[in-house]
Amino acid sequence: MSRPTAVGGAAPATMRAVVVTRPGGPDALQIKDVPVPVRKPGWVRIQVKAFGVNESEVTTRKGESDAEVTYPRIPGIEGVGLVDEADEDSGLRPGQQVATMMGGMGRSFDGAYAQYVTVPAGQVIPFGTDLPWEVVGALPEMFQTAYGSLTRGLDLKAGQTLLIRGGTSTVGLSAATMAKDIGATVISTTRHAGRAGELRTMGVAHPVVDDGKIAEKIRDLAPQGVDAALELVGCTALPDTLGCVRVHGTACFTGALAGGWTIPDFTPFMIPSGVRLTSYAGEAADLPAAVFQQQLQAIAEGRLKVPVAKTYRGLEQVRDAQTDVESSTTPGKHVVLLDD
Asked: Looking at residues 26-40, what average pLDDT do you find?
């Protein structure tokens, strides 16, 4: 497995990158030689070592993103690597291990499907680890979303019971292992009974098969309702999820795996009396460097598990990675590792 190494020498004039010049199928992902991005003041240039492949990048490739995305575009909303160049007063030094994500990356400006990427310094998270790049590359967006949902969205505490609706997603799997580390009891859903073992491996105490209506099943496990619920399926499932939460408990809407982002004819009286509804849509700043470092240490010690579905080597395999993400046949994160 590839391990972090130091940056050697100045960046070249050109680099290899995956470029989408027009929306389309996987063949729209073209490997091209392009200029290495010039760093602007206040930005950081990173030599990319690995990046996760996400559903939002499939959406960008298909041309189904919002008007923020223009073409040609290098996709990639997250990446890990080594600082190549930064402002002297940024606190970052060449060769330092860093992660970056979100904030328009791969959407309004070019992203991590490349040998180099430039991003605003505010969305760079420094860290130090001996974990392989293919492990670290799976983490930024997945861990930021899971951590932010559990803390800012739900304020989850030890001893509480958490329901994760959409438990076999990458965020759901990460949230389960984090919640167990916090000291919570985790109930998590899957549409397929055969995946219950995968959930238990990630720290889920009670896997539940989701047939669209789970409130009665959850009340059998937690008669008063759960303390907290993380909604990842979408607005189609949200009313039923709210029915699983106890009075003064909290539900956090974070994702819409089923595609339902709105509720037609919504009224606040759809929320059960006394149940709190929040949402989470965070950025890199919501995952403090100290917290990310603690998570890396917990992985190294075996307390946190990383749900990596598959590692791909080189930009040439990005098409395969996106095809596998789109098929949704293998749970966990798909990670592309770049050659040294």
From this structure: 96
